[in-house]
Amino acid sequence: MGVPDCIAIDGPAASGKSTIANKLAEKIGYLYFDTGIMYRAVTWMALRHEIPFEDETGVSTLAKNVPIDVKPPSVEDGRDYDIFVEGEDITWKIRLPEVDHNVSVVSVYPGVRAALTAQQRRIGLQGQVVMVGRDIGTVVLPEAELKIYLDASPEERAHRRHQERLERGEKANFEEILENVRRRDKIDSTREVAPLKAAEDAVIINTDNLTIEDVLAEVEKLIDQFKRGK
Ligand code: DC
Fold it and tell me: Which domain range does residue 192 map to?
């Protein structure tokens, strides 16, 4: 058996999914695709078009009609890719606190999820992909051959987000970030459509006391087991 064709990595905010998936994809020559950027892009569009987040129809229409372009990085500023919407480079804008704060609300809407899930599934089914999100193993690509669910305590995850912000030279308040992590966990895991949860056949890794290298080693071990057909 070769390397699994589709690798799904799910888990709550700041559990280390993106970092691990990105490094793994680079190592095995797969496409790295972070589906969270699409929910963030829709949240940014709503802000840009001044559509209130409570306007479910308005926000869902944006998700359905406005294309999100994801391309290889054109600027060396630490980005993994370029994200363009309506000709605007929104790569860093989708990380702003206003987006962080509202993205979970936007991702509850079934119309938004239907529009984005369809695009994600099309990309995933092309294969050779490490796809990251909340519902990849359960809804977007239930046929993924390897499913991993990365978890960590809210405190540890808030600490990681806090560090990331400081490293980018942004202002950051740990308590506010922790509260936002808890709030998003609650919304993400209790929504009706595609809630955050581990697929029944996912391998759960708690990353609280693990370094990035430790987690990567665990994941590579799982890939080796897969190759040996276990
Ligand atoms: O991974 P992230 O923090 O960039 O994700 C942002 C939000 O997008 C998250 O709070 C929930 C939503 N999301 C989702 O509902 N389903 C996905 N597959 C990916 C993200």
Answer: 6-227
C-alpha distances in Å from residue 171, one per residue of 67, 175, 189: 31, 13, 28
Encode pLDDT of 179-212 as tens digits. Answer: 999 998 999 999 999 999 999 999 999 999 999 9
13 is a domain residue:
yes
The residues, any chain, with a CB within 8 Å of residue 155's CB and separated by 6 or more, are 178
CB half-sphere exposure, 61, CA atoms < 13 A? 7
Are 99 and 44 a contacting pair, CB within 8 Å?
yes
Q: Kindly state if the Cβ of 90 falls inside 6 Å of ligand 1.
A: no
**Whose Cα sits closest to atom 10 in ligand 1?**
104
In this structure, is residue 195 part of a structural domain? yes
List, for residues 138-172, the tens digit of each pLDDT value: 999 999 999 999 999 999 999 999 998 899 888 89
**Domain-located, residue 1:** no
Domain containing residue 18: CATH number? 3.40.50.300
Q: Which residues contact 230 (CB under 8 A, 6 or more apart)?
A: none
Asked if 152 and 208 count as a contact pair (C-beta separation under 8 A), the reply is yes
Q: Is the CB of 44 under 6 A from ligand 1?
A: no
Tokens of 152: 């960590």
Number of domains in the chain: 1
Closest ligand 1 atom number to CA of residue 135:
18
Residue 67 domain flag: yes
